């Protein structure tokens, strides 16, 4: 299993747009066989940070999912939410291998 951790810098004034963007990506990851562990948004105080975690069975499975970016109409529509609203200022992806309790 490989887990993708996405750290976002978001516009705090556009949380509702970010939530719409996030809901679409959770649905699309599930549609493509991944497990989405959720988006984590600011809860208290001023913050411009958010995080998402989702897993695929392997790096190859993740790479198959990535081939749909810019091609699949639903992927394009989900990215359009981000691009048109400006809710995401920047993001960074990191791949991790989970160590889970037995």
Tell me about this structure.
The structure is a single chain. Helix content is 37%, strand content 31%. A hairpin with an 8-residue loop joins strand 2 and strand 3. Helix 1 runs antiparallel to helix 3. The protein is α+β, with helices and mostly antiparallel strands and 102 residues long. It has three helices and four strands. The chain has a single domain, classed as 2-Layer Sandwich (Alpha-Beta Plaits).
Describe the structure concisely:
With 102 residues, this protein is an alpha+beta fold.
Q: How are the SSEs placed, and which strands pair?
A:
Layout: E1 2-10, H1 15-31, E2 35-40, E3 49-56, H2 59-66, H3 73-85, E4 88-96
Antiparallel strand pairs: 1-3, 1-4, 2-3
Helix pairs in contact: 1-3
CATH-defined architecture: 2-Layer Sandwich
Number of continuous helical runs: 3
Main sheet summary:
4 strands, antiparallel
The fold-level CATH name is Alpha-Beta Plaits
Proportion of helical residues: 25-40%
Please tally the β strands and state the result.
4
Number of domains: 1
User: How far is the first residue's CA from the last residue's CA?
Assistant: 15 Å
| Percent range for β-strand residues | 25-35%
> What order do the strands of the largest sheet run in, or round the barrel if closed?
2-3-1-4
The CATH C-level class name: Alpha Beta
H/E element sequence: EHEEHHE
Using only C-alpha atoms, the radius of gyration works out to 14 Å
* Residue runs with pLDDT of under 50 for 5 or more positions: none
């Amino acid at each position: 299993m490989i887990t993708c951790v996405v750290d976002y810098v978001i516009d705090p004034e556009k949380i509702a747009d970010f939530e719409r963007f996030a809901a679409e990506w959770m649905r699309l990851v599930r549609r493509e066989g991944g497990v989405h562990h959720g988006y984590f948004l600011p809860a208290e105080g001023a913050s411009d940070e958010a995080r998402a975690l989702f897993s695929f069975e392997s790096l190859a499975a993740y790479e198959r999912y990535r081939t749909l970016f810019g091609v699949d109409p639903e992927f394009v529509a989900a990215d359009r939410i981000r691009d048109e609203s400006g809710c995401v200022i920047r993001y960074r992806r990191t791949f991790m291998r989970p160590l889970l309790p037995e």
